[in-house]
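Minimal example, chain plus 2-phosphoglycolic acid.
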Amino acid sequence: MKRRPLLAGNWKMHTTVIEACHLAAEIGKCSTALDDRDVLLAPPFTVLSEVAHVLKDSKILIASQNVCWEEQGAFTGEISPTMVRSAGGTAAIIGHSERRQIFHEDNEMVNKRVHGALRFGLTPILCIGETLEEREGGGTLKVLEEQVRGGLAGVSSDGMAKTVVAYEPVWAIGTGKTATKEQAQEVHAFVRKLLAEMYEKDIADSVRILYGGSVNVNNVDELMAQADIDGALVGGAALNAESFCRIINFT
Ligand code: PGA
């Protein structure tokens, strides 16, 4: 099954309005010829609509870095799926390890967010990943299975078909330490097999599973060459137009 690659840049808590517009414009310029892959940017909430505006004539997709499950209400500090849509977003990163670790979001909350995104027509990008301690203790696959099953609880086959999964080993995020292509492929194949058990095989075969964690210009090609790696979720290297452009132009 041929899956369309998805290269996503997560800007995290970086960029002022001016910086964001500049970076988006630079990335827009180097993405014009890419017809066989999707490119997505997840800027901070404050610049979602500016970035969407700068890129309105491009095919680059816009995502929020998180999303609430409610459409509106007393949820100070949150952003609703409708707000993301109205700012030009079509996707939302959910369950990023920084949300899980620093802000104590658990699988149950992540699951609510996934449902919220789907209900309002946003593509959930469900992040999963083990810590170094979990990997060294041999618990990697168990933790990932819990995150997949927990994050997707109650999600229908239809919903799953619209969802993207991102495997981001916590020990590889922002550390410069990438999972080897073999380590990443092993997990991606495991997740796909698990999805085939939870849903139908053709859905599992069509779901895009991204790798994230210190993806850079030097490792993107070999990661993308793995059978079950369908894209990348890029942090640090997405803040520099030149490196992100090289990444989205992986060969
Ligand atoms: P990194 O971040 O590329 O800086 O490791 C990836 C991510 O957290 O999405």
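Residues 6-248 form a domain with the TIM Barrel fold (CATH 3.20.20.70). The chain has one domain: 6-248.
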